[in-house]
Structure formats: C-alpha cells, structure tokens
User: What shape does this take?
Amino acid sequence: MNKTVGKPEPDELYTHPLENIEDVQGFYEAINRQHLTNSLSKERPYTYWTIELYDKQNGIRGGGGLGVLAADTRRVAEQSNVPFVLVTPFYPSEQHQHYVKDGDGFKNYTTHEPVDYVKYGFSFLDTVNIKCNGTIVSLDVIEKALGSTRIVCVTEPGFGELYSGDSGGDHRLYQEVALGFGGYQALKLAGLRPAIMQLNEVATFFAALARLDELTANGMDFYEAVVYTRKHTLYTNHTLVQAAEADFGYDQFERFVFPNLKSLAVKKWLSDKFENGRIRLSAVTIEIAELRSGVSKLHARVANYHDVAGNKVKFKAITNGIDIPTWTAPSIVYYYKKHNILDNFYLPTKNYAEGIEKITAEDIKELKAKGRTELNTVLSKRPDQYGNFVKIPDDAILFNFKRRFVDYKRPWLPFSDPEILKLILKKHNGYYILCGRVHEGDTNMAKKLEKILKLVDKDEFLKERVHYLPDYDEELGRTLSIGSNISINNPIVGLEACGTSWMKDIINLGLLISTHDGGVADCSADSYLSIDGDTEAEEIDSLYARMEEAASAWENDFDLEFLVKKELDNFLPVISGTRMLRDYLDYLF
Ligand SMILES: *Cc1c(COP(=O)(O)O)cnc(C)c1O
Assistant: This one.
C-alpha cells in the first residue's frame, strides 16, 4: 500500500467511462412489479467477489478451499455460458514452502516469488484510486476474458501476499478495502453493472458497501438504497463461529474506510455498527445482504451467527461442488459420459444410478492404474521431505491425506499408533502420502508436522512407506485423488464447513474414510467408510478399522464394486459443481 500518487482531489477519484454504474430506473420498475427481475447479460453479469482465488492456471495461487471454490464456480459458469465476473486481487507475490532434513529434525522455510500478470494473459485496463491512510493509492485494473466469464483484478506492487499480516491488521484491511472500493470502480471501467453480488466471505464486504454508497451519493433515498443493495447481495459464509472472526477498530476505519465514502448517511450507518469501538465484518455483512448461504447442509444448520439485533441468522444450504473436468482423470470423465452417468454439463443424468450399477471392479482397477501412472509422473518432479522423488509401485495400495495443516483437520490422527499403521501398510503393500501447507507463523502446527516427520524418520519401514510432499497445491490435490486408492478426511466433527478434497477422491473412484462432517454429512454415514466414536480414542480405533477394511476391499472385487458404487450413488449429485451453480441461480432468481 505504498504507491502514493498525491493528495486526494475528490473529482479525480471518480471519473470513469460508466458514470453511473447503477440501474436506478430498473430498481423502481422492479418494485412496481413487486419482484425483482434480474436477468443476466454480458453487461449485467453475476458478480462474484473473493479475496482468495485458487487458479494457478490464471496466475493466482490461493490458500485453500475458499479459493478453490471460487475458481470452480467460475469454471462451471463458463461451461454453462453464464455471464459471470469474478473480482479478486492479483497478488504480485506468492509463497512456496520447502522442507529439508536438518540433523535430527527438519527445517522448514518459505520462499516468496514474484508473479507477473502479463504472463498469465491479463490485460491492463486503467487505474483506479482509493484513499488509504491519508494518501491516494493507485490500483491497476487488469482483466482476462474466459468464455462468458471474466476475471477482473485490482493490484499494485505493494499489495502484498494473500493473508499476509494479522487478520485484524491494517494491511489486511487495506487489501479488503482495495478489493471492495477498487473492484467496484473496476467494474465501471469495464462497463459492467452487477446484477447480483455474491460475497465469498466477509473480507469482501466493502464491495457491497461501495455499492450502497454510490446509490446513496447518486441521490437514491438511503433506506431504498439499503433495500436495493440487500436484495442483490448474497453473503456466502464458510465459518462456523462468529466469535472467531477478527475485528477492526474505529481508528482503522477512519484511516482506511471512511475516506472512501461519499455519502454521509452511509458513514453514519456504518459508524453506528461499532460496539465499544470495534466492528466485525460479519455483523455488517449480514445487514447489507438479505441472501445468505452456508456451504453444506450441516454447516448451514449449525453456523452460529447473530445480527446486530441479536437474532440468529438463517443460512440457505448450498453445498459446495467441484468442477468435475478440472479434478477428474479424463479417462474417468469419458467413462461417466459413455455410461450415461454424467451429461454434457457434468450434471448426473436422470438415470445416473443405472449407469453406476454397471460399473465393474475391473473397470475401476483399469482406470485407477492409468491414474497411478499419471501420479507417478507428477511425483517424479515433486520431492518429499528428504528431497527424494517417490515412485508408488503399480501394485501398491496408496492412502492419502491432503489438506491445509490446521488443527481441526487432525493430520496427525492416523499416526496416533504407529505400530497399527505399520501393520496395515505391511499387510496390504501400503503407501501413505501426506500433503498440506502450514500457514506461515503457525508454530503449533509446524511442530505437529515435525513430530510426524521425526516419528517416520525413526522407523526404517515407515521411512520407506510414508512420504510428506511440501508445498501442497492444485497439482498435488488433483493427481493424488486420481492416483490413490484410499483417502482420509478426519476433521473434528462440527468444525469442517464443507471441504471439497474428499469430493475429488470419490469422483476419481477412490474410497473415502471420513468423519461425519461438513459436506460429507449431506449423505448418510453409511454412504462411505465413516469414522465413528464419542471420544478421540474411539475415533482412532474406528479409523484404523476403516483403513484395514478399505485396503482389504481393494483386494476383493465384490467389496470394491459395492463401496465405490455406493459412494457415487449418494455423492454424485452433491459433487457436481453445475448442481451447485444451479442451486445458486435458483436461490437468487
Ligand atoms: C481441493 C483443494 C483444497 C480444498 O481443501 P478442503 O480442505 O477439502 O476444503 C485445498 N487446497 C488445494 C490445493 C486443493 O486442491
């Protein structure tokens, strides 16, 4: 945030090709007709706001599920020919994580690499200005068109990395304000009027605030402007506990937010939302968005949020899906289409259950063998914790655990009793691949990872069979799903909002072992190999029993067929990203 241009001149901030982004006339027509008719068009698209996008093909590396969801939503919109604009920052630098053996332990270090948007096919449109900390910051607006969709980004050399700094700190607030106010002006530059604004979590609140401010400054009555903004804003929540969210202080808003508001009424409205000098973005996002969704059935039910009046907030359940062609082996996609299981839009067909019924163990094994080859190609370029390149034998059973290293996902759980783990791996010619980045500065999780690596290092057998692959990313997420037999997902029940990596495993004909949580709980616990238990000790016993059961199933055609078919029967409609987008469109229009 150090690209200072000079002192703000009010007029120089807001001169753009599209003087008035808002279709106020349309609003009055709509209330006259008693309902809103939001037809989408190229100039009036569905807009999707996200602080994180995980789409390395387009130059943007994310941190986890929130960003993967954003990328998949856009891809599905492109396939379905929906006019869709994704607004996000382009981070000029990204992190990479490395592990090296260091004496008895492991040394973990992070490198920072510059990213150039030109290399990823973005073109520069113009600059927009926002006011931060007493200066004007000039943001580059860049964009890239992909079919019926566009990615519009704001960026500047001092923008920093994704999730850099503290979550309630000045730099995060700057990034969020830049996305909201800068991104809103960027739409004007691009000649776009948002039909709908979907806020992917509360870090994007300022986009809706910018809209409310513009409507009010353009002369709409403040309360009508609130109604209009609310009716056209969808807040998608991914978090469970409101209290866990970082808050901001009034002084921070005085420096970063208020200077960007033109309307005194909006400023007053926002000021009134502070409690004891602090504000949580979820509280104001709930105020500004009448449409609210959670990311799985369970999550929508248990997310514990209250509005400023103290009433519990209701969330519509729209379970995440994935973009099937992105995450599935091409031969498996072909197989689904050939057997009339998926249609051309990657939705389950009307008779998909009949198609699934025809799957044979022989087909599964043949498709998985191809996947193993593809995985080994990727592994030949991705070193493990020793700097070695692993090759998983064709006849081995491969387990994977691949997700962000955060406490509630419990990556250490399968290492609770190393002797049992060893027995299972020995008996079934098993291998185990572990993946997941530790957030920079999370010393607790860094220690837990090191503990696992040391445990493995001490044992000659485990050292040969258990591999940690640093710098977890989309490439590893995808190919591990394609090339593994069994995946493990064991979050503490009640803490996973949805999760999508387990969907990648099921769609690629793998067996899922999971606790009954997040989107997995959209279907009954006998749809997959569930980890049960009232205590962690019971869960560990159940996990090992399931690992044994899953490995045995790969040695018995009847069991394998039965388990894979049951998973697909139940989860295929959940997994389909097209189903998710259709659910959003049904809810919105
Ligand atoms: C699929 C994917 C995710 C999603 O992870 P969940 O923990 O299941 O939400 C995160 N990161 C990468 C790299 C992925 O490919």
